[in-house]
Amino acid sequence: MYATKSKKMEKNMAQEKLVLGFDVGGTKIGVGLGSSEGRILGKARIENVDTYPEDVLPQMVAEAKKLVAGAGLTMAGIAAFGISAPFPADPANGIMTAPTNNRHWRNVPILQYLRDGLGLPGCFENDANCGALAEWFFGAGRGCKDFIYLTMSTGIGGGIIAANHLVRGGRALSAGELGHICVELNGRQCNCGLKGCYEAYAGGRALAQRMQEELRNKPDSMIMQLVDGNVGAIDMVPLEKAVRAGDPYAVALWDEMSLRNAQAFGMFINMFNPERLVLGTLAWAVGDLYTDPIRKYLPQFCWKEPMEACEIVSSELRRDIGYYAGVAAALNYLKEQDEKKR
Ligand SMILES: [Zn+2]
């Protein structure tokens, strides 16, 4: 029995692929060495990346090589790398064009640089797609053929897995920008330039901006009191507290947000008939107060059958999702390369 087990384990070890992942954020870059079995063998962080790419890119290569050596491996044992990066970008060519939070990074060919520096094949994906891939390989989307991941954070990013594939779309590779579907004609101004986007009604940043405008001259309001009159400190945290305390303004805004969430989810459910909607930050940080009202309103916006076939769940990876994002992108790259060969 032991022999059988160890043979099986050996087989698994032989099939286990090791990859490197890079999660490029506004202030830091996470580097991870992970495996197709969901193990993270090593992780590192590069701080203060709001400097010149000439300084940061060599650090990315050096940290990755250190992780590989630290795990007792050589680069020959690594199958690929993946980069998770924010938009705007040119994903087809792996170029970070003008990331909002890295003002010195303009048209940085990060994919080619890392290919040359590491001597490995690799890929470049936007961070919301990587979130979906991370949940698909390692988290709440495991085992699904069709599911949708929504970041539900300061903005609303999305990633769509349909028929076992990441949906990227056509030339712009912009599929999955689910926060920017229009939910209201001539509605609220969105940061993307359009009006009436879903994100303008339910994104954390948009809601904070709205509350700051509406409460600026209302020092007696509960939310203003919760932030000691510091308008700039108004965000989702005092909003949630005020909702739980029953403040009428907060309750009405929360209700509107929940209705917009349900409206958008209804469209996604009727469009894609997903097995799961996996929700990021706000959903797991707030809990049932966030998801229960959405479930209440959902029957207004989609058919019963696909609604009942879709579970609405929170991210399993939560704060750790960054460590898995680039790793998952690399594993998906290998999967797609395999499929091409067949
Ligand atoms: Zn928008």
Name the hetero compounds present. Answer: zinc ion
Distance between the termini: 35 Å
Rough shape? globular
Average pLDDT reading: 94
Tell me the fraction of residues in β-strands, as a range: 5-15%
**Radius of gyration, CA atoms, in whole angstroms:** 21 Å
The CATH architecture of the largest domain: 2-Layer Sandwich
Tell me the structural class.
alpha/beta
Q: Main sheet?
A: 5 strands, mixed
Count of alpha and pi helical runs: 13
Write the H/E string, N to C: HEEEHEHEHEEEHHHHHEHHHEH
Q: Remind me, CATH topology of the largest domain?
A: Nucleotidyltransferase, domain 5
Q: How many E strands? A: 10
CATH class value of the largest domain: Alpha Beta
Helix content: 40-55%
Largest beta sheet: strand ordering: 3-2-1-4-5
Can you identify the CATH superfamily of the largest domain?
ATPase, nucleotide binding domain
Uncertain residue segments? 1-5
How would you sum up this structure in a few lines?
This protein is α/β, with parallel strands linked by helices and 342 residues long. Helices cover 44% and strands 15% of the residues.
Structural commentary:
This protein is α/β, with parallel strands linked by helices. The chain has 2 domains: 18-134 and 320-341, 2-Layer Sandwich (Nucleotidyltransferase, domain 5), CATH 3.30.420.40; 140-316, Nucleotidyltransferase, domain 5, CATH 3.30.420. It contains 13 helices and 10 strands. The strands form 2 sheets. A 5-stranded mixed beta sheet has the order 3-2-1-4-5. The chain is globular and about 60 Å long. Residues 1-5 have low confidence and may be disordered. Zinc ion binds at residues 180, 190, 192, 194, 197, 199.
